[in-house]
Fold this protein.
Amino acid sequence: MHYISTRGHSGRKQFCEVLLEGLAQDGGLYVPESYPRVDRATLDAWRSLPYLSLAWEVLSLYVSDIPPADLKAICEKTYTPAIFGKPDIAPLRKLERGLYLQELSNGPTLAFKDMAMQLLGNLLEYELARRHQELNILGATSGDTGSAAEYAMRGKKGLRVFMLSPRGRMSAFQQAQMFSLQDNNIHNIAIDGVFDDCQDIVKRVSGDLEFKRRYKIGAVNSINWARLLAQVVYYFSGYLQASEREPAGVSFTVPSGNFGNICAGHVARMMGLPICRLVVATNENDVLDEFLRTGVYRVRSRADTLETSSPSMDISKASNLERFVFDLVGRDAARTKALFDGQLGERGGFDLSGDPRFAEAAASFGFRSGRSSHADRLAMIRDTWERYHTVIDPHTADGVTVARAHTSPREAMIVLETALPIKFAATIKEALGREPDLPDRFKGLEELPRRVKVLPPDAQAVKNYIAEIATS
Ligand SMILES: Cc1ncc(COP(=O)(O)O)c(C=O)c1O
Ligand SMILES: N[C@@H](CCOP(=O)(O)O)C(=O)O
């Protein structure tokens, strides 16, 4: 399998090159040259597989430059009950007939990011050792990617992490989780701005090819294809579990910000996984909902990016939309470049409403969307507790709110659970009048000493800091 850039100018790459490179050299995102198809018989054969074997099967379709036995060993090391807290790794929890949560947040940092980041840590360690190389990972987080990456990479040989986060905009627990890490290879940088500023800096630094080469800059955000690929696996797992119980059809609702999680669902569907609908759930920062309803992609400014009670989704410029739009416009790299490099930069967005392909998008790609507000979120946390004795986090609550508007008696709807409620205790208290129980291993976390550097929203300041640490 080879990979190409959505903007058409980065050649044909192998999986491990893409893993280390992150953002493509032309500023685009890597995608497979074509999506491998999985037929019905293969799907049926995968039904009885444990998660790690399912992961190996899916990854093997995309990774041709790691020997199969090594890839299997990496999957075995990653997807263990000890790391993911449950024997079946990503189980479904039934709320009521036709409505399920897929548990993805039982890993080390209590968010779905662990599902991919634990694999990425092991893949990177393997590949860097094979090449006798080092990598400086530069990432952006609105709260969960950062801690998942840092917990997956801490202490790993050949890896350093520089993680940018929007200063003061993450929950108290998320800040404590990241900033209390004292490992020498972990560097937290709080940026005076919003998540989109952090992500722009990552792209700008990675776009300086001389700096990238000199300081060996890599990525672990979902701009890195390997992240998305690892996330594709749990759509297969969720589908296989649900279709056994409800054979008529399976849809997914996905709380969305950077469009990474739902984009993995899109990839699974393009591979032939018979997903009926992929429902995007946003919070008040509803750029994606607006785009999917109208075809108009209108990025919000820093001042118009709202601070909400589902803060990990406070994103206005969704990286992975580029991968979907590339498919939507018939894999036309020149057009994708004109939209994301040209119009997005010049006019702050683009309009596909007049494109016949957009009109067919819902039918062709299965996308639907909706938005949720603070009031909806609180009401849904309360409702889910009262009906099912289950406490859900605010992002998952956005998912359930939107899912309820899209359920159909003929289909099972799976809502992806993207974090555990303890990460957002203040909102849970507002909804239920009490904070969720704190697992023993996190007691005292918020009182630990912290290590974080504050910088302005300026790519040069970040480059200077990386250079200073990397050469010290
Ligand atoms: C808890 C939580 N829910 C939802 C999302 C949105 O996912 P994505 O950015 O992949 O769309 C994020 C951030 O990625 C998150 O941390
Ligand atoms: N919500 C994310 C933002 C980054 O998304 P990613 O999927 O590109 O890593 C976060 O929690 O950091």
Summary: The mean pLDDT is 96. The chain has 21 helices and 15 strands. The pocket of LJ64HWYM (ligand 2) is lined by residues 141-146, 221-222, 257-258, 260, 312, 319 (CB under 6 Å).
